Amino acid sequence: MEGTRPFLRNAFIWTAVVALPITFLGCTRKKTADAVPVGVVLPITGREAKPGQYQREGIELAIKQINQNGGILVKDRGKKLPVREIFYDDSSDQAKSASLAERAMSSDEVVAVLGAYSTALGEAESVMPDRYQVPWITTGAAATTIFNHGYQYVFGTLSPTTLLGSSTAEYLGSLVDQGKLNKGLKLALALENTDHGVDYGNGIKQWSQQHPGYFNIVFSENFDLGSPDFSGLLQKVKSSKADIFLADAHLQDYITMHRQYLQSGMHHQMISYGARGPESDARKAMGDGVDYIFAGIWWSRNLPYPQVKKFNQDYKEFTGHDPDSWYPATAYDAMRALQAAIESAGSLNRTKVRDALRTVELKDSLLPGQVLKFGPNGQINTPFVIVQNKPGGKVDIVYPKDAATGESIAPIPKK
Questions:
Q1: Residue spans per domain, the chain
Q2: Is the pLDDT assigned to residue 296 strictly greater than 50?
C-alpha cells in the first residue's frame, strides 16, 4: 500500500494477537461482540498522504497502548474489550471520504469514526454522523463551517482556524510591543480557497480591527488547492510592497509556493504559511530556505509536559521517526477521548457514547494547556503555540512566553 511505513507490519502483528486483523484492502469484514469497533477514515495516498499517515500513526499508537492494557472497560459487558480498527484510505478525495465514512457508520457497526484530515475532507464527512447517529471525531479539520450546523454527533480535536489567524496576529503584535517590529507594517495575505482560508483570514482581520495601528492589510487574495504555479499570485504580493507575508496553505502547497517564493528573490520581515512550517518534508525540499518561517500549530513536540516527552518516546519507538509537526498528537488524543467516553458511558451504545463525549475532560492531554474538552458545538478550544524554524534544522516554540524554548528572530535577516 502506498504510504505505508515498515512499522505497520508490527501493527498487523499486535492486532493479530487479539485476533482482530487489519487488511491491505483497507478494512476487515470480521465482526465480533468481543471488541470495540472503531472506524478510521484518513488519506494515506493522494495529496494529503503525509499528514494522513502521521495521523493514522497517532491513532494506532493509542490503540496499541489501550489494547496492551487490556482494552476499554465496558461496564455493561462486565469486562475490558480490545479496540478493533476498521481503516479506510480515502485517497485525499472528498466524495470517497464521505462514502467511506458512510460505509463505516452504516455497514461496519462501528461505535465511532475518527479521521478526516483537512477541511475539505472533514466537511464531506461531517454530514454523515447525525444521519446515522454515530459519533465522529475529526482529527485534522478545524473550519468553523463543520461545527456551526448544530450537528449533535460531530466533535473535533483541533481548535478553530479563526483562532489560528488571531493567534498569528497576536504573536506579530507582541513583536511590535517588544520593539522587534515597527507599528503600522503592511500585511499581504494569500489564503487557500476553502473555509479554512476564510477562517484564517478572518482571524487576522478581526485582531487587526480590534488593535488599530498595529498592521494594515494591503493585499488579500485566494488561491486554489493543488496549484502547480503560484508565480502570478506571488508577483501581486511583491507589487503590494507588503512588509509581512502570511499565507494559509496545506503542506504540498506550502512547499510549492515557498520554493517559488525563494526563486523570485522576495524578502519580507516575517513570513508564515499558517499551520505549516516545521515539517521535515519542507526542510528536505528547501533546506535553509525554510529558516525563520513561523507557524501557529495545534501542538509541538517541544511542549514541556511530561506526557509529551513520553509520547515523543513512545511514538518514535512505534514508528521509527519523531513526530512531524502537530499531526499525530491531535489524532492520538482523539482516540484517548473516545476511550474515556466509552468508559464513562459504560456502554457501546452510540448515543450514550455521544453524550459522554460532551463531558469528557482529558486532564493529561498532549495539547497546549494539558486539558482537552469539547465545547458546546463539539470543537475544542485549546490555545495555539507559535514555532519558528531556526538554522540547522532547529524549531523553537517562540510564543507564548511561558512555553517558549527560544527567542523570536525578527525581522528575518537578509541573506
A1: 7-159+302-357, 162-297+385-403
A2: yes
Cβ-based neighbour number of residue 86 at 10 Å = 26
Residue 359's alpha-carbon distances to 90, 142, 143, 327, 362, in angstroms, are: 30, 20, 22, 24, 10
Q: Judge whether 146 and 119 are in contact, CB under 8 Å.
A: yes
Local structure of 373: helix, strand or coil: coil
Q: What is the DSSP letter of 275?
A: T
The pLDDT tens digits of the residues spanning 141-181 come to 999 999 999 999 999 999 999 999 999 999 999 999 999 99
- Is the pTM of the predicted complex or chain greater than 0.85? yes
Q: Is the pLDDT of residue 345 over 90?
A: yes
Residue 126 DSSP one-character state: T
In the CATH hierarchy, which top-level class contains the domain 162-297+385-403? Answer: alpha beta
CATH (residue range 7-159+302-357) = 3.40.50.2300
Give the neighbor-by-neighbor strand order of the sheet with 215-223. 215-223, 185-192, 244-248, 270-272, 294-297, 385-389, 395-399
DSSP per-residue codes, 145-167: HHHSS--SSEEESS--HHHHHHH
Do residues 284 and 299 touch, judged by C-beta distance below 8 A?
no
Give, as one character, the DSSP assignment of residue 276.
B
pLDDT at position 324, please? 85
Task: Read off the pLDDT band of 33 (50, 70, 90).
Answer: low
